[in-house]
Amino acid sequence: MDLSSLETLNRVAYQALGDWWQDERRNWCAYCGIEMQRWCGKGTIPGRQATRDHVISKAHRGGRLTIPACRACNEAKGSKFVAEFLDSEYLKEKREGQNVHCWPIEALWAVAGISAIRTALSLSISTARIAPARQFKADHIQ
Q1: Residues 55-81: tens digit of each pLDDT
Q2: Distance separating alpha carbons of residues 123 and 127, to the nearest angstrom
């Protein structure tokens, strides 16, 4: 897949989900749906503190896309891949009550896909500066 195809795919996918940092979704944890607190002063619950979770952690060369997450979910996810976290006992228990503000699982998977595309784009751009691009064809995958 060439660079312009990745860019187009990124743009279309992001437009389909909208900008969660510009609407009400920024106030709720994407994983468990609790209302988050921006300022955690005296008397607040630390687990409800608003954070930005790097969908693909910086440890995995990601960090280009963030979603709203409470401190408790962000710390529980740590550097796990999204697939690992979505299948974790922790998240299953947190989502058991199905808080109305939880993002649907399919939306979290879509965000993970967008994040992977952005990571691939940045890696493609940095490798393009180092070496000439190789042609990749899907029929080479076995």
Answers
A1: 888 888 777 788 899 999 999 999 998
A2: 6
If you write DSSP's letter for every residue of 36-93 in order, what string do you get? PBS---TT--GGGBEEEEESS-GGGT--S-EEEEEHHHHHHHTT--HHHHHTSHHHHH
**What is this structure's pTM?**
0.74
- List the Cα angle 81/85/88 in 5-degree steps: 140
Q: What's the CA gap between 122 and 1, in Å, rounded? A: 14
Find the helix packing angle between 3-17 and 105-130, rounded to 10°: 150
What letter represents residue 18's amino acid? G
> What does the alpha-carbon distance between residue 40 and residue 13 come to, in Å, rounded to a whole number?
34
Query: Cβ–Cβ contacts within 10 Å for residue 22, how many?
Result: 8
Q: What is the mean pLDDT of the chain?
A: 79
- Range 23-28, long-range pairs (CB < 8 A, 24+ positions): 25/68, 25/101, 25/103, 26/68, 27/68, 28/68, 28/101
